[in-house]
């Protein structure tokens, strides 16, 4: 059973930074294309960022491009989302997701249906 575990959320002020981590028990995350999604109160879950198996490809939602960075730390078997210059509108529960694929290409990474495994989420709250 694949489990994804997010950590690193918290309450911060606008302009601050946070580092979210996604770890797994039992599987090597480099076998998966990985992504972060988020869901704000009263809104649908939305795509934030994705990274290919090798780490060579990344994609970002427009509103976070230039502020957020997704990366892999394979020695620790984690995927990291660094979030800088946080804004109140970044407040949400952040989820990591794993797409088991033999492809190193990110095809439609915002399509939630392509992800096989999801974490329970970590809350990020940004006060203005």
Which tags fit this structure?
single chain, 128 residues, mainly beta, 11 strands, globular
Structure description:
The chain has strands at residues 3-7, 10-13, 18-25, 32-39, 46-51, 58-60, 68-73, 78-83, 92-100, 117-118, 122-127. The model has no long low-confidence stretch (mean pLDDT 96). Strands 2, 4, 5, 6, 9, 10 and 11 form a seven-stranded mixed sheet that branches. It has a four-stranded antiparallel sheet with strand order 1-3-8-7, with no helix packed on it. The protein has 128 residues and is mostly beta strands. Strand 5 (46-51) and strand 6 (58-60) form a beta hairpin. It has no helices and eleven strands. Helices cover 0% and strands 49% of the residues. It is globular.
In short:
By secondary structure, the protein is mostly beta strands. The chain has strands at 3-7, 10-13, 18-25, 32-39, 46-51, 58-60, 68-73, 78-83, 92-100, 117-118, 122-127. Strands 2, 4, 5, 6, 9, 10 and 11 form a 7-stranded mixed beta sheet that branches. A 4-stranded antiparallel beta sheet has the order 1-3-8-7, with no helix packed on it.
């Amino acid at each position: 059973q694949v489990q994804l575990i997010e950590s690193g959320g918290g309450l911060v002020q606008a302009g601050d930074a946070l580092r979210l981590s996604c770890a797994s028990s039992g599987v090597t995350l480099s076998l998966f294309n990985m992504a972060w999604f988020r869901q704000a109160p009263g809104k649908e879950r939305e795509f934030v960022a994705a990274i290919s198996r090798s780490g060579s490809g990344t994609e970002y939602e427009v509103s976070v491009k230039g502020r957020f960075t997704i990366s892999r730390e394979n020695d620790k078997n984690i995927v990291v989302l660094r979030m800088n210059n946080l804004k109140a509108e970044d407040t949400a529960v952040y989820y990591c997701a794993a797409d088991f694929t033999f492809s190193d290409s990110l095809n439609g990474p915002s399509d939630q249906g392509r992800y096989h495994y999801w974490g329970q989420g970590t809350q990020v709250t940004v006060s203005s």
